[in-house]
Amino acid sequence: MSTDPGPLEVALRNRRFQGGKALVPYLTGGLGDWQGALAAAADAGADAVEVGIPFSDPVMDGPVIQQANDRALADGVTPLGVLNALGRLDVGIPLAVMTYYNIAFRFGLERFASVLAEQGVAAAILPDLPLEEAGPWTEAADAAGVETVLLTAPTASDERLARICTRTRGFVYGVGLLGVTGVRDELAESAVVMAKRLKQMTDVPVLVGVGVGTPEQAQEVCQAADGAVVGSAVVRRMLDDGGPMAVGELIGRFRRALDSS
Known about the structure:
TIM Barrel, eight-stranded parallel beta barrel
């Protein structure tokens, strides 16, 4: 297994090297014209895109993404259908999938990692898989060349954060607040604190998500972080049937905000 950075980490490091801040939107696979939305996000300046594979019990996700999962599942989306569709896309930026461990487990860990690699997916995020139990998955992912992005909670000790930073690939995902995903009126103070703590202990790109719902909040957290993950605000546009144009317009606003900060 190579320990060199994979395509996701390379893209985020390049943005940082150029003096910029990374923007990684999340969208729900299988929801409406999600492939068009993905292409629009790439065209609008996303550095990478995180694609959610719908799951029936998304413990990390709030009402907006839960609703999106339910709608996509009702429309008949399957994990393999999302992955096969990703393999047919060529948007010019790295793609990551976010889903829950049960899907990877039911696939078979080696098969899931191999399918991701075959479909050109750079990375995977499994938010309900704790570090202490991640070994079998990370071994399979490493062997397939898939970057495993690990999450850090605001309540984690420095010792635990350090271990997560050592094992994560692509970037370290700082969870901005205690709670589920969703747009808030204000950025939680814990989001900036988390970014500062992580930046003190790793050179891996530090991105913060959960509770980053407006361009202004992304600007604020990126005073400390290397970038922001934006999910519920994007998925809300998809649920409102705004289509790819609305998603692209929103991502463009985030891109301009980060570029001007």
